[in-house]
Here is the input.
Amino acid sequence: IRDRASDPDWRLDARLDSEAFLGEFPGGARLSIEKSGPHISLTTLSASTQEASLEGSGTVQLDSEIVDGRLEWNGFPLAPLVGGLEGVEGQLSGKFQVAGTVVSPRMTAELRVEEAAFRGEDIEPVGLEVVTEGQRADLDLRLGERLLVHGSGQLETPYPFQLEVDLSAVPFTPVVRGWTSVESEVDVGGTVLIEIPLLHPEDLTFRAEVDRYEATFPNGSHRSSSFTVEGDSASLSIQGLQLTGGERRFKVEGILPLTMEHPFDLNVAGEFALDLFSELSEDLTVTGQGQADLIVQGTWEKANRVGDVLLGEVWGEGKGGWGGDVEVGARA
Here is the structure.
């Protein structure tokens, strides 16, 4: 520290070395920051382990309130950052840049996830770019070279954002394989439009227009022509969903509640082979035929079901062994 006590110049240098830096790896950090007159300079900001590194620098001019800075990081393991999602793997890298005035800076953030996988299923590299300038923010989320999500919003209360999702770029196949451990192929096309005020996420609304859906499992495939799903945080409205494939015919339309209080108004009709339940797990085998023609109303706690469900010649087998030939008819 030097010069006048009321407005001194100063310099800070710090160093940290640890055998368990950032949790479990040996590494260290360095920091050098200096004030000279109206200028503050971050000349050194670095941290590293055997796997990951972080570096940054920047300046602030106190008299003109101009800022200029950057931060880059590479190779951070993704799993500890998403501890609630079992089976997620990858390496997180990215950079952050800021320039302009303190009151109205332009900021750019880029995130990249490489060597990504979900429960052993490889996923293409994921990239996120966010740019803010003034009261506007734009973002692009890419999977490989494909644009998965484009969004824009306002940086003022209640921070409304609009997002458009390209369903053809969503990695449904590796996610379904990783989730169910069943060999499968899932192809979906269409768009989802989402509107969400960030301060009030419960006010989210969305509309999905699906122009194609086809899924192939070991026991067969099913598909649907175009249909729509729209809703909010309380319910979904499904229109035009007709699944076909092999001995399966399903038609689903109406309102599906997402809360305990919101009412049903759902129509389900179709014919199906019960082996569709075998697709949920490699440890489960179910055969037989079924028919359904139901109207579901009420709430989750007090649902009213009117119609028929018929099952015939059912056989099931799973871990531990169970089974038997039955014919079941039910009227609700």
In short: Residues 132 and 151 are 12 Å apart (CA to CA). The chain has one helix and 22 strands.
